[in-house]
Each structure stands twice: as C-alpha cells, then as structure tokens.
Design a protein that fits this description.
alpha/beta, 26 strands, Aldehyde Dehydrogenase, Chain A, domain 1, single chain, 758 residues, 24 helices, eight-stranded mixed sheet, Aldehyde Dehydrogenase, Chain A, domain 2, Carbamate kinase, ATP-binding
C-alpha cells in the first residue's frame, strides 16, 4: 500500500494487465499515448504568484505538435492555487478603502500587500481561469481541451473510477486533450506550511501520484514529469560531485541521496521517483526532466519523445555493459595511464596490434564477411559505402604497415619539449607536448578506421571513444577486441572504448564534460550533423571533399590522363577523390581534351557539364545541378576556365578547402597556384589521392581537417597533441620583478633537448 495524499491506494494497477515499458530511449518515438505532468515550479512564475505564461505557451505548442502527429496527449497540471492566489490578492487589495489604507500602520500595509489566503479558496478562484488559459492556447492549434477535476475518492469508488476511465477514453477518441487536476477546492486541509508565501499549498506529491495513477489506469506508453531540476542526480543538485543520472533502474534508490524539495510544493524528487517507479511497475515508461530551463523548455517534450538524452529515463532493462558516461571516464583514466608509459611501451602496444591484424586475419575477414552479407541482404548501403565496408588481406597488410610506421614515429611524441625560455636566474620555462584528453571518433562503414585511430590515440597518449556504424558491427567488435588485447600487455585495456549502447550521435556530442575532441569520419552529411550537434566540444574534420584538378594550357599530355584517372577512378568513394575537373579554355577541341574525355568514358565516369563548359557544346552532357557537389562515385563535373587565376577563384568559391591540384609544365604558373590556393593540401603534377596520412608518412590519420586552427590536412599524431607549460623556480615571486624589485626578466631562449634520431 502507498499513500496518495491522506488516503492509501493499492500499488498494483487495477483492471490492467502488467504491460511492458520501453527498454531504451530510442523506442520512445513509438509512444502513442502520453501523459505530461506539469509541476508547480513549471507552471508558476518565479515570484510564486501567477503563471509563467511564456513557458506554458511553449508546453502547449509542443503538446499540440505531438497531438497533431496522431498521438494521444494528456496533461496533469498544477497552477490553480498560484493563479487563484494572484486573482484573490488583487481582489482583496482593490476592495480596501483608501481611508483604511492611509490610516493603517506600516506593518499593516505590509500584511495587506501579501494577504494570507487559504489554499482551497485560491484553488476555487484559480481553476476556471487556468482552464480558460489552456483553452485559449490550444485553440491556436485547432485543438480542443477538456477539464477533469478529480479527488482521491474517484479512484476508490469502483463506479467513479470506471466513469473517469470511460470519460478519458471518449475524450481521446474525439482527439481532445484532457487536462486533469486535483480538485483542490474540496480536498482535506493540508498540513500547514509556507511554501508559497502565505499560502498552504497542496503537496506536489499529490499530482505526481495522480499522474502515475492516471498513466497506469489509461495504459499510457510514456509519462513525462516536468519539474525545475534536470532530472535525478546521484547526490543533491548543486553539490560539487552531483552527476545527472541518465537511466535509473528499480533498486538503484540506495545509490541516490535526495536533497531538499523544489522551489514550490512538498513532494520533492523522492516523491517523483516513487511515483515514477510505481508507473514503471505498471508498464508505463517515465522520464523526469527540467521544464523551466529557458534554453531547453521550448523543446523538452518533443526531444524526449524523439529519444534524445534529456532528463532521467526510468528503465527496467539494465544493460550488461557500462554506460557511455562510464566508458568516457574509463577512457580518460586509461588515457592518463597510457600517457604516463614510456614511449617504448606505447610503441610496443602498437607493434603488437599490427601483428594481431595479420595473425588474426582469417577471423577478421570472417567477421567482415558477415557485415557485408547483412548489408547486401538489407540493401540499405550504396555501392561506395559497401566498398568502404569491405576488408581484404591487402588492406589488413597495409594497415599493419601503417601501424608500424606510427609506432616507429611515436618515440618522442608525448612530453617533447618544443620551447625553453629562461625567465630569470633559476627560473626556467618549458613548453611540452601532452595528449588532448578523450577523443570521440565517429565513423561509418569503415572498420579499417578503428585500428588506425586506435594506434594514433595510443601513440599520443589519448583516451579514445569509438562509435562505429551498425553496418560494421561484427568487424568493429573483433578489431576492438584485438586492440584491447594489445593494450593489455601494459595494463591499459580501458584506454580505448567501443560504444555499443544505443547512443544517438547527437547525445554523444553533448558530453562536453567528458569528451575533449570529436573527430567524425564519414559522409559530409554525418560531419555536418556532428558539427551542428556538438555543444561546447571542438570538432576536427571536413564536411565535404570537393577536390579539383586544374589542367593548365601548358600541361603535359603524358601526365594529364594518368593523374586524372588516378584521382577519380582509383577509389571514387574517398574524400580525396577528384570531383571537379577544371580545363583551360585553350585546350578545348584539342587532342589532349579528346584523350581526357575518351579515358573518362572508358572508365565509365559519368560527366556533368559546368555552365561555361556547356555553353561551348552543341550537345553537352547533363548540366551540373551544383558546382559544390561531392559525388563519391564514378561521376565528375567538367568546367572551363580562362586562366590559372580564374581556376583559383573557382576553387575558392566552390571548393571545400580539402585538396586541389594543378597539372602544368610551367613552374611559374605552378608556384603561383601552390601559393595562392587556400586549401589544406595543394599539389603540382600529383594525384589528389596522395592527400592521406599513410602516404604522407604519418603512418595513418584520424581524418583530414580543413579548419584553420590546431591541425590542417591529414591529421596524424601531431594533430592529437596539445601543450602545457612547465615552470621551475626557486622561491620566485612576481613582486621581486617590480620597478623596485631585486630581479630582472631575462627571457633568454634555451637550446632544445636533442630529439631521438630514429
């Protein structure tokens, strides 16, 4: 038995078979019937007198949106007491005579300003106004709302309970939003308290329990409880170590310390948790979230229904492994241990991983075969993505070679002194390289990315979170297992973590307190989505790989077709593949131009004509829809330019600052191109495909960055390091360097330690 207000009710749901709540947030998008409980702190203003109209309007808009999607929405609302208090205060003050106000003492005036009002009277005065406000707001979205006032007895009288159930079902059938509240005008007097200045407030626990009871009675899929805190914390919110609990499981109450109650109401978080667990037991999923925060209240309800990581989600299904937050903390701790190892030990781990890639080749290819078969059976992956998904013996051999390059070049990466300065006598300053911290690498359809990125993270002493696409699940699993096996030789197994939970990428991008850098590896759409979703976390990468090759009027006939073929056809799905071919106008209708076109046709490359190129042709290929297109397949755009200057201007206007090439025998023209094209990689008489960490001798890359800060181009070990300053003194204080102090600044540059020649 659990008490709801002063009357107990049976804790097992009546006339309802034990349902099954959603196990994961991602399933909440399938919720059909939803109850939204609005706490007093959500509905009332900060001065606790009157309603928060803007906040309420936003909530009504979200509820209306979901209702118009075909869902069945119900609201359990507070606010009648606060609204009535505002009305009655004004009424009482207006009814006082001017004489009485003038002759009253100062203390009486103060009492008149905040009259003591009985809660039930406030509720009686506020109910009609509150409902009128809801009706006016819902009318803006062509939705009808209906008010239902209930008391405890309505749930204990069988006939009344059936009537209530029938009324709610009929309203939902007619697409009406029921707005339910306790009939606070007739409930028994509450225990005296001063929650709302001068008003004995009905305990918030009543509406929490009411919402849970209704949710179970009506067999709802989801109960959203909005309060003035972000959710459930493992210790009182505001304390130094308080952490928001993403998912709460029955039986976890012992690990939670409840703090004080919210701004208004008596229930507090403990009452909400009890109500939530009761609803969960009855088969209704529950989320407790903040409905007052100005930055999220405008979309908190819709975000929850979309499965985004908002508030605390109550689930009966506990995952077998750690949460992503726990994985991030494990990666940070493991990364710090990794950074403290000797360079030779980190290199030894990478060498071991390279050996495992070749030793376990058959198991890796077998797992990859499963991924390929599943992808082909589902038919969801385009051909370029299938090519990226595929592993082969040659790919694994190349991976192993690249990893050994990383191991060999990582000997002095972490802790390398890059600047030494003598500030003053016996006061020396050093700037040294250190790991960035915890990296989140999100990649799709490229299992070979996992060992590459892992090796670079190990070499640079960074903790690593990996989020791969589900299409490569089997391949990623075995490659991660081998990575952890290699890490185990020096006890740093946890430094590299593979996220296997159903975490949405957008939710991962919000972990700004746990992740220091996000590196996306995948389609331009993936990168754009991550750049948009990342809140407070830097993103390293490029959203597009629109690479150009400019064929100058002085280009060599022998070089042109070889470079273009390699740039476009060697691996068209790569981000460093040719997408736009710029040709000098004087080359049109020449044998060289004909050779280029013939070669592209033989290679079955579909040609799209740029506007200028199309104007020169009587019958042209299909005109390009956009000059900013990354095809990622055997397609390319051809455009005509009048000069190298025009080619540069075209690249700056339509390119993505990735990789751009000039083919010419004129050294002056080539140098002009190299110096003036503002891209991460600019080449002369070489294929765009050389834009790669392995081909640059970096061993591998975590990606190619087109940003202008920190790292640019293929990012290897150096791009995963930052610096810190070490100052070694002997009782030095700044006051000694003042005008009348005893010391002077020297600021002398000191020689750097000799680097490892290997």
């Amino acid at each position: 038995i659990r008490c709801w207000s002063n009357i107990p009710f049976i804790t097992m749901p009546l006339s309802r078979a034990h349902g099954k709540s959603f196990a994961h947030r991602s399933e909440l998008k399938h919720a059909k019937r939803i109850v939204v409980k609005l706490g007093s702190a959500v509905v009332t203003r900060g001065d606790e007198c009157g309603l928060a109209l803007g906040r309420l309007a936003s909530i009504v808009e979200q509820v209306s949106m979901l209702q118009n999607q075909g869902r069945e929405m119900m609201i359990v609302t507070s606010g009648a007491v606060a609204f009535g208090k505002q009305r009655l205060r004004h009424e009482i003050l207006l009814s006082q005579s001017v004489r009485q106000a003038l002759h009253s003492g100062q203390s009486q005036l103060k009492d008149m300003a905040i009259p003591v009002l009985e809660a039930r009277a406030c509720a009686a005065a506020g109910q009609s106004g509150l409902m009128a406000l809801y009706e006016a707001m819902f009318t803006q979205y062509s939705i009808c709302a209906a008010q239902i006032l209930v008391t405890n007895l309505d749930f204990h009288d069988e006939q009344k309970r059936r009537n209530l159930n029938g009324t709610l079902h009929e309203l939902l059938r007619m697409n009406i939003v029921p707005i339910i509240n306790t009939n606070d005008a007739v409930v028994p007097p509450p225990e005296p308290n001063s929650d709302l200045q001068g008003v004995n407030v009905i305990s918030v626990k009543d509406n929490d329990s009411l919402a849970a009871r209704l949710a179970v009675e009506m067999k709802t899929d989801l109960l959203i409880v909005l309060s003035d805190v972000e959710g459930l914390f493992d210790s009182p919110p505001g304390s130094d170590d308080a952490k928001l609990i993403d998912i709460f499981y029955p039986g976890d109450q012992q690990s939670v310390t409840f703090g004080t109650k919210s701004r208004v109401g008596m229930g507090g978080m403990e009452a909400k948790v009890k109500a939530a667990l009761w609803a969960l037991q009855g088969g209704t999923s529950v989320v407790i979230a903040n409905g007052t925060h100005p930055k999220i209240s405008g979309h908190v309800i819709t975000d929850i229904v979309e499965g985004k990581k908002v508030g605390t989600f109550f689930s009966e299904v506990k995952p077998a492994g750690p949460t992503v937050e726990q994985q991030a903390e494990m990666a940070r701790a493991g990364g710090r241990t990794l950074a403290a190892l000797q360079p030779e030990q980190r290199a030894e781990i990478i060498y071991r991983l390279a050996d495992l890639l070749t030793d376990q080749r058959e198991d890796i290819l077998l797992a990859n075969k499963k991924d390929l078969q599943e992808a082909e059976n589902k038919g969801r992956l385009a051909l370029p993505l299938l090519k990226r998904l595929s592993l082969s013996t040659s790919k694994l051999n190349s991976l192993a070679i690249g990893l050994r390059q990383i191991a060999a070049s990582s000997q002095d990466s972490v802790g390398r002194v890059i600047r030494r300065t003598r500030i003053a006598k016996d006061l020396d300053l050093e700037q040294v390289t250190v790991p960035i911290g915890v990296l989140l690498v999100i990649f799709e359809s490229r299992p070979d990315c996992l060992p590459q990125v892992s090796a670079l993270a190990i070499a640079s002493g960074n903790g690593l979170l990996l989020k791969g696409g589900k299409e490569a699940a089997h391949s990623n699993q075995i490659l991660h297992h081998l990575t952890q096996e290699a890490l185990s030789i020096h006890g740093v197994r946890d430094a590299v973590q593979l996220v296997n939970t159903r975490e949405e990428v957008e939710d991962l991008c919000r972990l700004d307190k746990l992740i220091d850098l996000i590196i996306p590896r995948g389609s331009s759409q993936l990168v754009r989505n991550i750049q948009k979703a990342a809140k407070g976390i830097p993103v390293m990468g490029h959203s597009e790989g629109i690479c150009h090759v400019y064929v100058d009027m002085d280009a060599s006939v022998e070089k042109v077709t070889r470079i273009i073929r390699d740039s476009k056809c060697e691996y068209p799905a790569a981000c460093n593949a040719l997408e736009t071919l710029l040709i000098h106008r004087d080359l049109l209708r020449t044998p060289l131009f004909d050779q280029i076109i013939d070669m592209l046709r033989v290679e079955q490359v579909k040609i799209h004509a740029g506007p200028k190129f199309a104007s020169y042709l009587t019958f042209s290929p299909s005109e390009v829809k956009s000059l900013r297109t990354e095809y990622g397949d055997l397609e390319c755009c051809i455009e005509v330019v009048d000069s190298v200057q025009e080619a540069i201007e075209h690249i700056h206007k339509y390119g993505s600052s990735h990789t751009d090439v000039i083919i010419t025998e004129n050294e002056k023209t080539a140098e002009f191109f190299l110096q003036h094209v503002d891209s991460a990689c600019v080449f002369w008489n070489a294929s765009t495909r050389f834009s790669d960490g392995y081909r640059f001798g970096l061993g591998a890359e975590v990606g190619i960055s087109t940003s202008r800060i920190h790292a640019r181009g293929p990012v290897g070990i150096e791009g995963l390091l930052t610096t810190k300053w070490l100052l070694r003194g002997d009782n030095h204080v700044v006051s000694d360097f003042s005008e009348h102090g005893s010391m002077k600044y020297l600021h002398e540059s000191l020689p750097l330690p000799q680097r490892n020649a290997n």
